[in-house]
Amino acid sequence: MFFPTIYSATTDERHIVKDKNTCACGTRYNAFAMLSRSDLRKIRFKHYKEVTCPLCKSSIIDEESS
């Protein structure tokens, strides 16, 4: 299964995008109200196994089991 992901250079992890400002684990990747075109280019669709954030992975597992 593929998810929209974003890479965080500060934590060196790949997170799953939840909405236009936050990741599935609650980390903010966009601090501005408006998304720019360059922000959208940072979002990549990656396979579930390529996500390295443990909190993002656990949130997806919880949703699938429900």
Shape: globular
Largest sheet: 3 strands, antiparallel
Coarse structural class: alpha+beta
Total DSSP E strands = 3
Helix count equals 2
| Estimated radius of gyration | 12 Å
> What's the helical proportion of residues?
25-40%
Order of helices and strands: EEHEH
How widely separated are the two ends? Answer: 17 Å
**In the residues, how many domains can be counted?**
1
What is the residue-mean pLDDT, rounded to a whole number?
A: 87
Strand order of the largest sheet: 2-1-3
Write the layout of secondary structure elements.
Blueprint: E1 2-8, E2 13-16, H1 37-41, E3 44-47, H2 54-65
Key attributes of the depicted protein:
single chain; 66 residues; alpha+beta; 3-stranded antiparallel beta sheet
Fold and architecture overview:
The protein has one domain. It is 26% helix and 23% strand. It is built from two helices and three strands; from the N terminus they run ββαβα. The chain is globular.
